[in-house]
């Protein structure tokens, strides 16, 4: 196991993020195992669009978004040092699908795992400039302590499940 992958998995464990590992062929089944119905999703941008083979609604209505328990989106990058995921905002609706649900299932290609924030910012700067996109860095479940005790899920998902798609897993 690489040093970056080891640091990443340790950071995710500290954050309470569940992790599954799979390959592209088993991705639809892995997603189905990770979701709680009703589930909505935004295109993952992978070959063959794996969400088409799952129980995830990939063309949700506003009502379906409100009722959804789980949202499934892709992460564009990840930061090993912090366990952070870079969620790109796009015209596929990934922001609505990933941030306004109780449970967020995030799919990440292992090759998009970068060792540190410097490498991530350098890569992200090129992508955002080239594609005129925006992105957020999410680190674990949404949490706030504004009112005293730590509250999970106050401004986003209460639970995060990361599905890492490796080569030859």
Description:
With 169 residues, the chain is α/β, with parallel strands linked by helices. The chain has one domain (3-142, 152-165): NagB/RpiA/CoA transferase-like (Rossmann fold, 3-Layer(aba) Sandwich). Helix content is 28%, strand content 28%. The chain has a five-stranded parallel sheet with strand order 1-11-6-3-2, sandwiched between helices. A four-stranded mixed sheet has the order 7-4-5-8, with helices on both faces. Strands 9-10 form a two-stranded antiparallel sheet. The longest helix is centred in the last third of the chain and has 15 residues, at 117-131. The two termini are 12 Å apart.
Question: Descriptors for this entry?
Answer:
alpha/beta; 5 helices; Rossmann fold; 28% helix; 169 residues; five-stranded parallel β-sheet; globular
Fold blueprint:
Blueprint: H1 3-15, E1 18-22, H2 27-34, E2 39-41, H3 62-67, E3 70-74, E4 77-79, E5 84-89, H4 94-99, E6 103-109, E7 113-114, H5 117-131, E8 134-138, E9 143-144, E10 151-152, E11 159-165
Parallel strand pairs: 1-11, 2-3, 3-6, 4-7, 6-11
Antiparallel strand pairs: 4-5, 5-8, 9-10
């Amino acid at each position: 196991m690489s040093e970056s992958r080891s640091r990443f998995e340790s950071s995710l464990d500290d954050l309470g993020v569940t992790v599954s590992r799979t390959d592209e062929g088993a991705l639809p089944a892995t997603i189905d195992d990770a979701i709680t119905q009703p589930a909505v999703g935004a295109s993952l941008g992978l070959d063959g669009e794996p969400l088409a083979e799952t129980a995830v609604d990939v063309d949700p209505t506003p009502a379906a978004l409100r009722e959804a328990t789980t949202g499934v989106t892709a992460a564009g990058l990840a930061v090993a040092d912090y366990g952070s995921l870079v969620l790109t905002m796009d015209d596929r609706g990934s922001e609505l699908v990933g941030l306004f649900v109780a449970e967020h299932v995030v799919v990440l290609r292992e090759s998009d795992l970068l060792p540190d924030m410097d490498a991530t910012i350098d890569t992200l700067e090129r992508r955002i400039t080239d594609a005129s996109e925006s992105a957020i860095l999410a680190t674990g479940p949404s949490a706030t302590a504004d009112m005293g005790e730590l509250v999970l899920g106050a401004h986003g998902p209460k639970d995060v499940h990361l599905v890492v798609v490796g080569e030859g897993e």
